[in-house]
């Protein structure tokens, strides 16, 4: 009996027959793909010619890429551009004066400062100097970064619509202020796959921080897949215990027994895949196999005894303490060497609504030397040319003071209208300063770069047309850059 497709009141028998028809269709269509996927996981050498495209939607870049991988050093909480990269010397003579209304021009304040009786200007207390052949101005808080400015493309004209942390972090990571969209790393894994079969294509590292105050929470959805297949989500490596939970075999379990168990489980999942055609079943097979491989690859990854003393010293003394930003930068380089596609290193604690000078000293002490060492280390190993390094937070900070203002202490509120990020390697133009803000570091006056523009440019460096990497979900096509965004070609070499 055939199912009555247009019957408004189908019987249970009709629905069962229709479901079987769909099941058979999907099962037959996916059978060959599922078998090939499993075979490639169990015997990668059978498919060596296409390893870089495994699991990829695109089957390869849209055009010749400049970068193969990304290391994103994310400063959660929003570093102060006016104290680090955007030097405004004229403000020294305007200490404690009210920020002119003509500068604000009706822009909204956060609820944390909207009730202030006044908005006094707080000039940076830190000295700036020009460095390198490019003459890029950098704060005294970043002496190691100052030594690599000729490798950096400093963008002083970033902006976003989001004014609070969680929406802003979600926006820069996923292209939407609302939770539920895939993260940048997930899009890259989905689009390009991974050339590495022993480690995940997307790895996340969390760092300790020195400004010991409450920090913005980082939810796992920031490295999640949203509506993409879950095999593309980021894998967060822990700094203590097993780097991945449940990585060790249970007591009494031997590797050959675990291999037999996984083989039997794969056969059962394959049978289920033939019946239902559910892509998440293939994802499950891939995840089990990856977990098995991680038992070998992760301990080797974390064994840094092969690193020279000179390399370890370049990252600073904290490199020997697991979970520090220094240790994670070294780990990021080791992951890049192993062709991990996207490496996200989070560093929290940058939300200085008060005591900014003292706390930013601590935060810069955490990240300055390791970030500079990472760029140099990549270059020395010939990896910087095809590794794109990104440094920055979710927005900037205000010129006016939040709370009490003194000659040597102040706090700054959130500022989405203008902030600074830097990029290095992977096809960007070194020794470049792009964009400019007004004398108050409040409004952009030259070459604005939206968050969608940044993400479009990152995708372009990896050979992806951001308008063509899409996924249909609930009746519409989605992409990382939503409905706008442009590649900023002036940032590219």
Textual characterization of the structure:
The structure is a single chain. The chain is an alpha/beta fold. It has a single domain (60-240, 322-491), classed as Alkaline Phosphatase, subunit A, CATH 3.40.720. Helix content is 33%, strand content 15%. It contains 12 helices and 17 strands. The chain has helices at 12-42, 81-84, 101-104, 143-146, 165-174, 184-192, 255-276, 279-302, 309-314, 325-337, 356-380, 451-461, and strands at 69-75, 128-131, 136-139, 152-159, 202-207, 235-237, 342-347, 387-392, 396-401, 412-415, 419-424, 432-434, 436-437, 444-446, 449-450, 471-473, 476-478. Strands 1, 4, 5, 6, 7, 8, 11, 12 and 15 form a 9-stranded mixed β-sheet that branches. A two-stranded antiparallel ribbon has the order 2-3. A two-stranded antiparallel sheet has the order 9-10. Helix 1 (12-42) runs parallel beside helix 8, helix 7 runs antiparallel to helix 8 and helix 10 (325-337) packs parallel to helix 11. The radius of gyration is 25 Å and the shape is globular. The N and C termini lie far apart (65 Å). The relative contact order is 0.20. Mean pLDDT is 87; it is low at 1-5 and 18-53.
């Amino acid at each position: 009996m055939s199912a009555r497709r247009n019957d408004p009141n189908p019987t249970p028998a009709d629905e069962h027959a229709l479901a079987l028809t769909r099941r058979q269709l999907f099962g037959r269509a996916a059978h060959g793909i599922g078998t090939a996927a499993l075979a490639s996981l169990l015997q990668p050498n059978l498919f060596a010619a296409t390893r870089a495209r495994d699991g990829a939607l695109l089957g390869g870049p849209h055009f010749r890429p400049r970068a193969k991988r990304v290391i994103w050093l994310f400063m959660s909480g929003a570093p102060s551009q006016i104290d680090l990269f955007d030097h405004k010397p004229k403000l020294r003579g305007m200490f404690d004066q009210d920020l002119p209304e003509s500068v604000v021009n009706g822009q909204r304040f956060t609820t944390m400062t909207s009730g202030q009786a006044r908005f006094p200007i707080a000039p940076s207390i830190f000295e700036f100097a020009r460095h390198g052949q490019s003459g890029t101005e950098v704060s005294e808080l970043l002496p190691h970064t100052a030594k690599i400015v000729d490798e950096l493309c400093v963008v002083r004209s970033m902006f976003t619509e989001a004014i609070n942390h969680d929406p802003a972090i979600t926006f820069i990571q996923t292209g939407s202020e609302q939770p539920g969209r895939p993260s940048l790393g997930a899009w890259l894994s989905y689009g390009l796959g991974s050339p590495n079969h022993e480690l995940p294509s997307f790895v996340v590292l969390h760092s300790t921080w020195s400004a010991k105050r409450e920090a913005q929470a980082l939810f796992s959805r920031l490295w999640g897949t949203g509506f993409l297949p879950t095999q593309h989500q980021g894998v967060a490596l822990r700094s203590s215990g097993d780097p991945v939970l449940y990585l060790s075999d249970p007591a009494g379990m031997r590797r050959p027994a675990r291999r037999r168990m996984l083989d039997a489980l794969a056969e059962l999942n394959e049978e289920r895949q033939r019946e239902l055609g559910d892509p998440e079943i293939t994802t499950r097979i891939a995840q089990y196999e990856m977990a098995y491989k991680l038992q070998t690859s992760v301990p080797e990854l974390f064994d840094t005894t092969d690193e020279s003393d000179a390399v370890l010293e370049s990252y600073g003394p904290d490199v020997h303490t697991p979970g520090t930003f220094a240790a994670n930068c070294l780990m990021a380089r080791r992951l890049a060497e192993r062709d991990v596609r996207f490496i996200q290193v989070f560093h929290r604690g940058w939300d200085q609504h008060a005591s900014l000078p003292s706390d930013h000293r601590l935060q810069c002490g955490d990240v300055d030397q390791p970030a500079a060492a990472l760029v140099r280390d990549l270059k020395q190993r010939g990896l910087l040319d095809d590794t794109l390094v990104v440094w920055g937070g979710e927005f900037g900070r205000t010129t006016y003071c939040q709370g009490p203002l003194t000659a040597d202490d102040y706090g700054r509120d959130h500022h989405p209208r203008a902030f600074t990020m830097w990029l290095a390697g992977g096809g960007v133009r070194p020794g470049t300063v792009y964009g400019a803000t007004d004398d108050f570091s409040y409004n952009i006056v030259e070459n604005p770069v939206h968050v969608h523009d940044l993400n479009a440019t990152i995708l372009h460096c990896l050979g992806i047309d951001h308008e063509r990497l899409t996924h249909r979900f609930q009746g519409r096509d989605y992409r990382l850059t939503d409905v706008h965004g442009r590649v900023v070609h002036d940032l590219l070499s």
